[in-house]
Amino acid sequence: MATKTEVTVEEKLRALYDLQLIDSRIDEIRSVRGELPLEVEDLEDEVAGMGTRLEKLQADLEVIEDQIKEKKNNIEESKSLIKKYAAQQDNVRNNREYNSLSKEVEFQELEIQLSEKNIKEYRAQIEQKNQVIEDTKSRFEERKEHLKHKQSELNEILKETEKEEKALMKESTDFETKIEPRLINAYKRIRSNVKNGLAVVAVERGASGGSFFTIPPQVQMEIAGRKKIITDEHSGRILVDPDLANEEREKMQEMFKKLK
């Protein structure tokens, strides 16, 4: 069995480009999902928040209903006291006692008026809160339906791609073990710093893939020679020649078909 030191530069380049193709396919699968997982998460939070708001509004209504009951009880107590004081006025011995009871009656009548005013205000609050509850329920049902649709959409995408993504991630890990740590570290560093995660690219029309900077003919010849690992001086990407790239693409496409 060949040791790592016996692996040729060409074999390293092929392995790196294969790894890039695998990781790019994983990126492609994930891009199909796009912002959908985050969108679903945001909708779940929104729906949960609206549910909590509805519970609070219902609890507020119960508190107001209890306040109305309390005021109604106060009114009945005041009416009873008025009857009591009116009866006592029939048996008073002097004007002072009569006037004192009259003031008590007057005070209870004011208490009744205040309680009735409070009840009117509480009923206005109930009407307002019921309107808010109705509007919130409408939006709540609408957002729940939207969430259900988005969850279904996400589940469908996951169902279609989950198997392939898991298989590709395993292949990516396996391919990493075939490449020396120094190159893997460089690959990951470049991949995290460049657009579209492309750390290894083919030379296309005399330029680095995805770049407009022309590569000198001498350097192109060195890349085609596959004797050393060459990076693009502008982007830092590892460069491979078009023939090697085409061969590896064909090979990896066959593998991708089997993983679906």
From TrEMBL:
Coiled coil: 40-178
Sequence ranges assigned to domain C4-type zinc ribbon in this UniProt record: 208-239
Stored Pfam families: Zn_ribbon_9 (PF02591)
InterPro entries assigned: Oxidative_Scav/Glycosyltrans (IPR052376), Zf-RING_7 (IPR003743)
Source superkingdom: Bacteria
Keyword annotations: Coiled coil
PANTHER family, A to Z: PHOSPHOLIPASE C-BETA-2-RELATED, SCAVENGER RECEPTOR CLASS A MEMBER 3
Name by which UniProt lists this protein: C4-type zinc ribbon domain-containing protein
Organism: Aequorivita echinoideorum
